[in-house]
Amino acid sequence: MERYPLILRDADEFPKPRVHNLYLDFNGVVHNATHGNAEVVNKTEQQMMGAMFAELEKLFAVAEPSKLLFIAIDGVRRGSALRAPPIFGRGRAQLSERGGGQCPVWSSQTWCAAHH
Predict the structure, then answer these.
(1) Cα 20 from chain centre
(2) Is the pLDDT of residue 8 over 70?
(3) Is the residue at 38 inside a domain?
(4) Residue 13 lies in a domain
(5) Angstrom distances, CA of residue 28 to CA of 4, 68, 69
(6) Which pLDDT does position 12 carry in this prediction?
(7) What's the pTM?
């Protein structure tokens, strides 16, 4: 902050950009609304859903997309956190070897690698 005092500014100082389409990876919202980093979950399902919708409303109000709000949620990770990256990397490598190249825009790399 001492070297760059203007680095932190209020968002009101800049014109708000127009957002037509908003792609929202909802996994982080679900994680924080359901349990965050807590060891013990002591929320009801209704509280969790309320927290997710409240966060969705906040994000929507900030971006104000004019055409589309795309909410993406993927499933639970299979296997351990230590094993997952090599498995997904192998799948992408196999996809490239088969001439598949890039996954379609609508699919996740994980899904695409696992199903081709």
Answers:
(1) 18
(2) yes
(3) yes
(4) no
(5) 30, 20, 16
(6) 80
(7) 0.55
Write down the residue that tokens 């965050």 correspond to.
36
Q: Is residue 10 part of a domain?
A: no
For the stretch 27-77, pLDDT in tens is 999 999 998 888 888 999 999 999 999 999 999 998 999 999 999 998 766
Q: Determine phi and psi for 52, rounding to 5 degrees.
A: -65, -45
- Domain containing 58 equals 19-75
Domain total for the chain? 2
Tell me if residue 71 falls in helix, strand or coil. Answer: strand
**φ/ψ of residue 2, rounded to 5:** -65, -40
Q: Which helix (H) or strand (E) holds 112?
A: helix 109-114
Q: Are residues 56 and 30 in the same domain?
A: yes
**Cα–Cα distances in angstroms (integers) from residue 12 to residues 15, 16, 33, 44, in the given order:** 7, 8, 28, 37
pLDDT at 116 over 50: no
Looking at the structure, do residues 29 and 70 belong to the same domain, yes or no? yes
- In this structure, the answer to whether residues 63 and 87 fall within a common structural domain is no
pLDDT of residue 19: 95
